[in-house]
Write a structure and sequence with these properties.
InterPro entries: Na_pump_deCOase (IPR005899). The structure is a single chain. The chain is an alpha+beta fold. Among the domains are: about 130 residues, Nuclear Transport Factor 2, Chain: A (Roll); about 35 residues. About 55% of the residues lie in helices and about 15% in strands. The chain is built from 10 helices and 5 strands; from the N terminus they run αααααβββββααααα. Strands 1, 2, 3, 4 and 5 form a 5-stranded antiparallel sheet that branches.
């Protein structure tokens, strides 16, 4: 079925009758108009409403729509910027393609040559106009090399930038005002049981004479109470501790 459809569309294109005289008239009109139109006229047509422009083109008898007309103006303006001022063109050659009836001719501009192409539909209305500049092999290779250099250069620049960012990950927090690490404060000295014992032991070593006196007084009191010498001799004073103050009130 696809083969039959393709054959049917091809037969339809072959049977389509194009108004060649109207097509040639349209192509010549567009080339002459685009060549002679100045910037003010092009701006006026661009600012004109599409319906009004369609009406003026219909009155002129040129089979072209407003959209195709403005597209042709833009294509010709871009061609003049790229190829220079228009000089002349050769004979047109015609062919029927899938897009429609195509006319093309070689044209000479001030800086380089180009190919002007027109496409018409089955009603002989112009659909588009293109101007393709011709470049030499050296210019093509130069452009290809320039594109390659720009592409690879952009990639390497981006990679270098990413590597630089990664290497600065340790510095970035400091740039955003991260707090400096405070030095740990020295721990306060807390007086615990060990310090109390050390104080008591120091006091005990310093009170040797007081211990001797108290021991002698206790021994004398035991003798007066009638304790034997064995019990008295078995008593030794090893340490003296201060008794806490009495908190009871009379």
């Amino acid at each position: 079925m696809l083969c039959f459809t393709a054959c049917g569309s091809a037969q339809k294109d072959d049977e389509t009758e194009y108004n060649e005289s109207a097509i040639e008239q349209t192509t010549e009109f567009m080339i002459q108009y685009c060549t002679n139109a100045d910037e003010a006229m092009r701006k006026e047509f661009r600012n004109m409403k599409e319906l009004k422009l369609d009406f003026q083109l219909m009155q002129s008898g040129i089979p072209i729509t407003a959209e195709s007309f403005l597209g042709a103006l833009n294509a010709w303006e871009a061609a003049e910027e790229e190829c220079g001022e228009y000089k002349s063109h050769g004979d047109f050659t015609s062919e029927i393609t899938n897009e429609g009836y195509k006319l093309s001719a070689n044209a000479k501009f001030a800086d380089r040559e180009a190919t002007i192409s027109f496409i018409f539909d089955d009603k002989s209305y112009m659909e588009s106009m293109t101007v393709d500049a011709k470049y030499s092999m050296g210019e093509i290779l130069a452009k290809a090399g320039m594109n390659t250099v720009l592409g690879m250069g952009t990639v390497f620049v981006v990679l270098i930038f990413i590597s630089f960012l990664i290497s600065q990950f340790k510095v970035i927090p400091a740039l955003f005002g991260s707090k400096k690490k405070e030095e740990p404060a020295s721990a306060p000295v807390v007086s615990g049981p060990s310090s109390v014992l050390e104080t008591v032991e120091t006091q005990e070593t310093d009170d040797t004479e007081l211990i001797a006196v108290i021991a002698a007084a206790i021994a004398a009191a035991r003798e007066e109470a009638g304790m034997d010498e064995a019990c008295a001799g078995g008593f030794f004073v090893r340490s003296i501790r201060r008794r806490p103050a009495n908190k009871w009130k009379a």
